[in-house]
């Protein structure tokens, strides 16, 4: 299991828009945080064949408590692989649930990625 911490810069105005349309949260995630997510997923995989890459990210299940300034969301993604020797492509759907707090214009979100593949 890999722990992932994202530091997403979000203004108060942007947070209000995200609460109405949580898919906008993806636009706020920095390239550095996307790279960290990619690396955490890659490091957790026992089978690294096909150069696995994450893609097709989406956000769902966004909740936010205005009083506590805390919430949750899920990032779903595909793990895409391309096997060059056989010209085969594969895809596996995964997700990470994040808990977050909001302060000083930042969403600090922590989640854990668990590779559910059975490895005999």
Description of the structure:
Helix content is 22%, strand content 49%. With 120 residues, it is of the alpha+beta class. It has a five-stranded antiparallel beta sheet with strand order 1-5-4-3-2. The model has no long low-confidence stretch (mean pLDDT 84).
In a few lines, what is going on in this structure?
This protein is 22% helix and 49% strand. The chain has helices at residues 12-20, 25-28, 31-44, and strands at 2-9, 53-65, 70-83, 88-103, 106-113.
Summarize the helices and strands and which ones pair or pack.
Blueprint: E1 2-9, H1 12-20, H2 25-28, H3 31-44, E2 53-65, E3 70-83, E4 88-103, E5 106-113
Antiparallel strand pairs: 1-5, 2-3, 3-4, 4-5
**Which percent range describes the beta-strand content?**
over 45%
Averaged pLDDT, please?
A: 84
Oligomeric state: single chain
Name the strands of the widest sheet in spatial order.
Answer: 1-5-4-3-2
- Please count the beta strands (DSSP E, at least 2 residues each): 5
Principal-axes geometry comes out as elongated
What class, by secondary structure content?
alpha+beta
Biggest sheet architecture: 5 strands, antiparallel
C-alpha end-to-end distance: 17 Å
Which characteristics define this entry?
single chain, 120 residues, alpha+beta, five-stranded antiparallel beta sheet, 3 helices, 5 strands, elongated
